[in-house]
Each structure stands twice: as structure tokens, then as C-alpha cells.
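Appendix B: a complete holo record

For completeness, this appendix reproduces one full record from the ligand-bound portion of the collection. The bound molecule is flavin-adenine dinucleotide. The inputs are the chain sequence and the ligand SMILES; the output is the full three-dimensional arrangement of the complex, encoded as C-alpha cells. No fields have been trimmed.
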Amino acid sequence: MSGRNNIVIIGGTACGPKAAARARRCDPHARITIVEQSSNLSTATCGLPYYVSGLIENEGDLVARAPGYYQEVMDLQVHPCTRAVAINRADHAVSLLDLISGSASTLEYDKLVVATGSKPAMPDLPGSSLQGIFTFTRIKDANGIREMIRERQIRKAVIVGAGLIGLEMAEALAARGLEVTILEALDRALPKLLDPEIAAYLEKHLRDKGVRLLAGQPVMAFEGNQWVHEVVSRDARLEADLVVMALGAKPNVGLARECGLALGSTGGVAVNEHLLTNDLDIYAGGDCVENVNRVSGKAVLAPLGSTANKHGRVIGTNVTGGSETFPGVLGTAIAKVFDCNVGRVGLSESEARHAGFEVVACLVPGYEYATYYPNGQEILVKLVAEKATNRLLGGQVIGPGETAKRIDVLATALSFGATVDDLAGLDLAYAPPYNSALDPLHNAANLIRNKRDGYAKTLTPMDVKDRVDRGDDFVWLDVRSPGEWDNAHIDVPQGRLMPLRELRTKLDSIPRDAEILVSCQTSVRAYQAQRILDGAGFRNVRFMEASLVGWPYAMSGTRPVSSDEVARLMAIAP
Ligand SMILES: Cc1cc2nc3c(=O)[nH]c(=O)nc-3n(C[C@H](O)[C@H](O)[C@H](O)COP(=O)(O)OP(=O)(O)OC[C@H]3O[C@@H](n4cnc5c(N)ncnc54)[C@H](O)[C@@H]3O)c2cc1C
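The structure of the chain with flavin-adenine dinucleotide bound, as generated:
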């Protein structure tokens, strides 16, 4: 082996194989070995929910590369079904256990890569060893669930955890005809990713799809006789034939910790910007390491395939003598939940406040195409910026329309430290089948600028709901048409129909000293009304951001407003 760089990689799913492939391209002569405890490398874990739903029918479609490919094409040594059981840093050696034969061996390295990923969180609760309870990270879990659906007459599923995986699994199991309930310990769907307004939109969508979400319900126990039959949470007792535990991922750092590699405050392996650990010959990447959030500067875990692959490339360069750096993460994430696409990037408003920023935020509905172009769908954008500097801090986008490109634009803007003014001026592509002349992100940036410059004065739907619930004294003008009101309206004592076209002629009927709230369908007309009232000398006028599109609570009326109608009503930008 003399003269050849001897690289050993532990972990063969995302980060490990990416590091190996990059290392091979950088150094055609290195000896590169991947050690993986399961039988396959490069399994597309992210596709597992679609394999359960049946959208992806064959298990083999989820295996990007068979071990043979790595050997024949990439000239890599692959040890599948082999567990690394110890790292001996002094001797530069890894102890291996062959999981089929039971034999032990040792592998020496010049450079070692720890890419051991994460483990699903699984609390030790009464009854948690009953059959029919699954964590969900491996193809084996997906096959177990598919088999139960096929072989047993199961009807009811309980998912524990309303995170990304829990929600994707809700759709997958509903697609298999199961009645799905989600238990979430915190107060909302995607509680660590979304602010309450966006989570409420998502929760309404789940209700529309027949999925029950019980928030504030930590699971306490499972009951049954051999097979799970009931899930007990703080205040509920739910029948369940199948339980999916989707409580998040914990960095798998046992090997790293035992050999003395430093861990960070989040529990992930501590690495520098080169993804080097506290041992100059050991790199680490993927779910098992701690990252830096580029907006807050704080240490975070980022257990995502997107991050793991980027880590792998940086490591592959660096183990072969290069000097690449990883810039940190933005917390970008996206998921499809039935007909709703939900994404986020940067800091949520709650995270930003918690990190000590003084923030300004806004909620703006939009439409994926030009409003007159057929079959487009609505989206709802939340933007968060730093008040003092106008620097963007984060964004969330949800709806049946195209959210991914908006999240990616925001990710790009955040990467380059853009302000809301930069975002408002971005030269984004426009033709009617793709967008409006002003993208919903432009409109959101402009609303923050309008608020900053004193033109727009607003309340969020949640602020308004709080005021209604408190019985506050104010006048609420709905400036839509009578027909729209009949279709759907918010039934509150403060409410009054005042179509925008009549507003200028009916100013005398509005009490001048009252606090006035204005709403419409999308907030476009409500903002216009606010400016008319401001101009007429009314001193205390605000409009409800996102208006009825952003109102996740009950409404009265004869029928909901369709997406096409929302599009028509959005024809004027705020
Ligand atoms: C259901 C699901 C859906 C997901 N969807 C998305 C998505 O849409 N987008 C996204 O960005 N991310 C998604 N993720 C997350 C993504 O799959 C992970 O972030 C990614 O797989 C992490 O890659 P990794 O290589 O760091 O770790 P892992 O994928 O966990 O791989 C680590 C590997 O190391 C092996 N290993 C561990 N210890 C040892 C040892 N001692 N010896 C030998 N081998 C060992 C393990 O067997 C495993 O194969 C999803 C995850 C799940 C579970």
C-alpha cells in the first residue's frame, strides 16, 4: 500500500458514497474502502414514503448503485454487511465485524471518514416493543409496513410526530386506505420549522384530507397483546393497528465518541469548515455532525440528504489533499403533504426572535402563474427580515402552487446576505405560464418595505383572531362584493360588509374615532381600502395580512372560494 493514500469511509448511504466518489475522481490511485453495515449502499432513504404509498413499486428503484458498481466502475473496496465496531486512533485502524460470518478484522487508514448518519429517536415507553410499531429510516421498515398492509386487515394508523417524515407518511398511509391520526407533542404541525400561521394553513389541509392531527399530545404508552392495539397520549386513547414513530433523528456518534472525537453542543460530531474533526486524520459529515446555521451563526443539526451530499463532496476533496470548505446550512427544507407543498428556509419568525433579532415579518398570498393563466394554484408566503438592516432572515411558502422555486430563490438570496430591497429588485423570469410579472416573493418584499415606509399598517390573521376572542371593540370592514360575502365570510360581531367600490361614497357611515380593521379575499383590496381611509383622515386603520387566504379558522357561507377565483382577486399587487 506504500505511496497510495489509504482512505476508509464508515457509512455507505449518502455522505459516505459521495465522499468516496469524489475522492476517486480527485485521486485515481488512492485506495478507498467503504464499510457499511447493511447489505446495500446508496439507498435513497428520502424515497421511502413513496415506496410505502405504492408510487414507487420496486424496492430496487431506491438503490441508486449496487455495491458491484462501486467495485467495478469506481475501483472502490466495499464491505457491505460489515460493522465498524471501534476506531483505534493511535494505530490508525478500524476494527470490523462481519455481520454474516461473525468474523473480526482490522482495517488501517491514512485518512478516515465518519459518515455514520443518524438514528431515529425512539423513547422507551411502556409497550414500545409490541409488534406493529415502526421507526422509519430503512427499507426494512418500509417493507415491514407494506407487508402489514398486505397481510393483515389493518385500518387505523397512528403517526407519532408531525415533522417532515410524519407528514409524508400520513399521505403515504392515507394513499393505502388507512385512517390516519398524527400525535404531536408540541402545539402545531412542523413545530420546529414553521411559524403558527403557516402551520395552521397546513393543518387545515390535513383536515380537508381526512387526517386528524392532535397537537399538544405527547405519547405515553402503547397497549396491545403481541400486536399494538392502542396508543395512549396525554389526553387521548387511540385505536391503532399500525404505529409509525417519526420523532426525528439523533446523530449516530457512538463510534466517534468512544474513540475520543469531540462532540458539539447539539450532540453531533464537532467539525471545522473543512469538516475535519479534532483528529487531523479524521473527517466527518452527514447526519452525524454538527453544522453552523449561516443566518444565526448558531450550532445546529441538519439531518438532510441535501446537506449530507454536499458534506461528502467537500470531504472527498479534502481527504485527497484539497482544501474545500463547507459554508454552513440555512435550514432549507421542503415536503409534499397531499396537495400542499410546504417549504422553509433560514429562520422562522419564532426562531429569529429567539436568536435575539428584532424582526419584521409579513404574510402574502400569491399565485403560481399569471392570474389569468388557467389551472394555476395559490401559495402563501411568509417573509422574515431584520428590522434594523432589512436583511432577509428567512421565509416559508405553502400551498398547492409551486413553492420549491420560491424557497430556492430565498435560499439563494439568503446565501448572499440579501435585503428585502434586493429581493424586491430581483430580475426573475416571467411569462404567463410560469409566473406573474411580479413574483409573490416580490410582493412579500414590497409589503415589508411598505410597512417600513409607513404605507401599509397590518395585523396578522392570528392577531385578529386573538382580538375577536377577547371581544375587543373595533370595526371590521370586509371590502369584498356581496356575492363573495355570501360565499364565505368570517362571522363576528365586529364585521360589516363595505364593498371597495362603495367605500369612497360611504365614508360618513364609518365612525371616525373607531379602530378599523379591513379585510378582503387576498389583502390586495384591503390594502387599497386602508390607503383610502388613511387619505380620508381616519387615524387608526389596519388591514389583515393575507386576509381570507391566510385565515385558517372557521368561516360561514355557502361555498369556499375556488383557486381560480382567488387568482382573479389577486390581479392587483399590494
Ligand atoms: C423517510 C425519510 C425521508 C427523508 N426525506 C428527505 C428529503 O426529502 N430530503 C432530504 O434532504 N433528506 C431527507 N431525509 C434525510 C436523509 O435521508 C438523510 O439526511 C441522509 O440519508 C443522511 O445521510 P448520511 O450518509 O449522513 O447518513 P445515513 O443515511 O444515516 O447513512 C449512514 C450509514 O452509515 C451506516 N453505519 C452507521 N454506523 C455504522 C457502523 N458502525 N459500521 C458500518 N456502517 C455504519 C448505516 O447503516 C447507514 O447506512 C429523509 C430521511 C428519511 C428517514
